């Protein structure tokens, strides 16, 4: 399975979580690592998804697609 196929398929699974708004993938123009942006209603719904059995299953299925463990960085929207 290729990473982009996994990412697209996992979006459907994550979309079922309460508070999920969207998840997009950014690809660097000159090579390097992708960046995923996950948008939730609030930190609580994000953390509920991030610590769910769904997340654990998807991470297990994608281990061969990553070098190391992806480390999330949390941001707040500024208007």
Task: Provide an overview of this structure.
The protein is an alpha+beta fold. It has a domain at 3-56: Alpha-Beta Plaits (2-Layer Sandwich). Helices cover 38% and strands 16% of the residues. The protein is built from three helices and two strands; from the N terminus they run H-E-E-H-H. It has helices at 3-14, 43-50, 53-62, and strands at 20-26, 35-40. Strands 1-2 form a two-stranded antiparallel sheet. A hairpin with an 8-residue loop joins strand 1 (20-26) and strand 2. Helix 1 (3-14) packs antiparallel against helix 3. 3% of the residues are buried. The mean pLDDT is 88.
Topology:
Blueprint: H1 3-14, E1 20-26, E2 35-40, H2 43-50, H3 53-62
Antiparallel strand pairs: 1-2
Q: Quick recap of the structure?
A:
This protein has 79 residues and is α+β, with helices and mostly antiparallel strands. The chain contains three helices and two strands. Helix 1 runs antiparallel to helix 3.
CATH architecture of the domain at 3-56: 2-Layer Sandwich
Strand content: 15-25%
The structural class is alpha+beta
Number of strands: 2
Q: How far apart are the first and last residues' alpha carbons, in Å?
A: 38 Å
Let me know the average pLDDT: 88
**CATH topology tier name of the domain at 3-56:** Alpha-Beta Plaits
- Work out the helix count: 3
Helix coverage percent of residues?
25-40%
Q: Give the H and E element order.
A: HEEHH
The stretches of 5 or more residues where confidence is low (pLDDT under 50) are: none
What order do the strands of the largest sheet run in, or round the barrel if closed?
1-2
**Rg to the nearest angstrom?**
13 Å
Largest sheet: 2 strands, antiparallel
Give the overall shape, derived from the CA principal axes. globular
Name of the CATH first level of the domain at 3-56: Alpha Beta
């Amino acid at each position: 399975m290729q990473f982009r196929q996994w990412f697209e398929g996992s979006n459907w699974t994550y979309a079922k979580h309460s508070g999920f708004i969207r998840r997009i993938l950014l690809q660097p123009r000159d090579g390097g690592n992708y960046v995923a942006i996950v948008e939730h209603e609030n930190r609580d719904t994000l953390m509920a998804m991030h610590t769910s059995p769904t997340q654990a299953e998807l991470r297990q299925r994608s281990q061969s697609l990553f070098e190391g463990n992806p480390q999330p960085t949390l941001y707040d929207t500024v208007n």
